[in-house]
């Protein structure tokens, strides 16, 4: 929109009404329907004020209810307009059907190519957005919690183009988005959606207005598998297990186990201690155990030997060495020393980063324990990756 308006001859300084953008103002005389956060000077030195600013920011992410955010800084005002309204599925189709080369830029050829390209070369993006609301994730801020899904016809056309590539080996290694099984899901009540201020449709419980029927995703996967030249289609971007258990069709777990797991299903329980999971805004560990019981029983019934790749996190606000020892004990009892492990790293626009910086949960106002010393962070990760730590192969990035 900005590019079009500039091309029409509009002055850049006059373009101050585009959603999702930030402008600078000397005063607020022209700003209406706004909410003011504590000033930069306040939040820079006052932890509760910082929490207040974050709480205000997180409360204005629904594009239908969001007000303009303003914050004073050095005698002027930073003015952040409400988030843009979600694009349509047809528009998302048009973006992904542009004539992409599906190859690294030729400039990388002299360096032997891009090794990471092999990981994504056989993937198809089915949707964008995530309504999970995990404390450590910024997806809610830069993609939004409204899931926008591509049409099955568009996915099939992309799969056909992919199958025509000489390097394609018949396997779509992943058909998914930020969370694979959110494709086609969303709020059943548009009136409720336009007023909702929940950060998550799944926590602390699955919203009664959320459509949880996974049939659209199963139909999309089946359609992709039916494309000439495609032998297998996998859902590898991660399955939200509490959402899978809520599937009202009752078919999802069995169909995915039967056709769309490449030997290992990716899951992210993140931790096993309820207090830590609450700080992460993730479901309790008993939900994960219930899913694993059903997953294992389904594979046994189908006569399949399939496993799971579990993602865990150390050093998150609210997590002590004792909590990590409890997680380690659970993992050892199962003979697991995760390779897919992450030491929490603060990143912009997340609730977890606010807790890390302030030691306060901005939603409750309560103090939160924060492991900050390098020594404790190493200890926590080593407890989780006990096999690697014992061999001296531990790294702070979670690798072995």
Task: For this entry, give a set of tags.
alpha/beta; 15 strands; 400 residues; disordered C terminus; four-stranded mixed sheet
What features would you describe in this structure?
With about 400 residues, the chain is an alpha/beta fold. It has 17 helices and 15 strands. Strand 3 and strand 4 form a beta hairpin. The termini are far apart.
Overall, the morphology is globular
Please give the order of strands in the largest beta sheet.
1-4-3-2
User: Which regions are unreliable across 5 or more consecutive residues at pLDDT < 50?
Assistant: 392-400
The tally of helices reads: 17
Output the radius of gyration.
Answer: 23 Å
Global mean pLDDT = 93
By secondary-structure content and strand pairing, the structural class works out as alpha/beta
Question: Approximately what portion of the residues adopt beta-strand conformation?
Answer: 5-15%
Number of strands: 15
How would you sum up the major sheet?
Answer: 4 strands, mixed
Helix content: 25-40%
The end-to-end span amounts to: 46 Å
Outline of the structure:
The chain has helices at residues 2-7, 40-43, 47-58, 89-96, 117-120, 139-142, 152-163, 190-193, 215-225, 241-245, 252-259, 274-280, 285-302, 321-333, 351-358, 374-384, 386-390; strands at residues 22-25, 34-37, 68-73, 76-80, 123-125, 127-128, 148-149, 171-172, 174-176, 186-187, 210-211, 232-233, 264-270, 307-314, 341-343. By secondary structure, it is an alpha/beta fold.
